[in-house]
Design a protein that fits this description.
Elements: H1 2-30, H2 35-63, E1 69-72, E2 76-79, E3 85-87, E4 90-94, H3 101-110, E5 114-115, H4 121-131, E6 136-141, E7 163-164, E8 169-173, E9 176-180, E10 187-193, E11 195-196
Parallel strand pairs: 6-10, 7-9
Antiparallel strand pairs: 1-2, 2-11, 3-4, 4-10, 5-10, 6-8, 8-9
């Protein structure tokens, strides 16, 4: 009887050893890495997931065209109308539709604005960023290739960046500022000063 118990004991130990060996083999198949290596992988996955979420949130916030309010230390609050975006001291409207240069200017005037101008490279970069992939009319025009470029308020353009082309009306393209004939249909950008509350 004691031999039987001893035999069961040895059998049990052998069975336990083979079970542990089997577990070890399974673990090596599932994960050939050490636990510290797995922890490192988990950390990388968590960081990358956080980065993807942050990029998604940032892109959805930057793509929204909604009412913005910015605190001004001198005046109180300045606001832009709904569907306009504030930058610097102006509010900008980026059209959803395309039209020729003259109709685009008329549409801006109906909104109490004009086809946009820009005062600095920062403002120009902002316009490029928000216009997307579409070309968009801006307020630069001239009477002929022998005349200077002017904004819609007739002030002369300071040649901050060169303008490509020989036509009389300017638009923002992915390559900078280009020209086209008035009847060409493009989206447009309006601008007006902030309104103060």
């Amino acid at each position: 009887m004691s031999e039987d118990l001893g035999g069961l004991s040895i059998k049990g130990e052998l069975q336990e050893m083979t079970d542990k060996e089997q577990q070890g083999k399974c673990l090596r198949i599932v994960s050939p890495m050490s636990p510290s290596g797995l922890h490192c992988c988990y950390a990388v996955i968590i960081v990358l997931t956080g980065a993807v979420i942050a990029l998604f949130v940032a892109s959805s916030l930057s793509g929204r065209k909604e009412e913005k309010a910015i605190a001004s230390p001198k005046v109180g609050y300045v606001t832009c109308p709904r569907d306009w975006i504030g930058f610097g001291s102006k509010c900008f409207y980026f059209s959803e539709h395309a039209s020729n240069w003259t109709s685009s200017q008329t549409s801006c005037m109906e909104l109490g604005a004009h086809l946009t101008d820009f005062d600095s490279l920062e403002e120009l970069n902002f316009l490029h960023r928000y216009k997307g992939d579409s070309a968009a009319w801006i307020g630069l025009h001239r009477e002929s290739s022998h005349h200077p470029w002017k904004w819609t308020d007739n002030t002369e353009y300071n040649n901050l960046v060169p303008i490509r082309g020989k036509e009389k009306h300017a638009y923002l393209s992915n390559r900078g500022i280009s020209t086209a004939r008035n009847y060409t249909h493009k989206k447009w950008i309006c601008s007006k000063p902030y309104s103060y509350i």
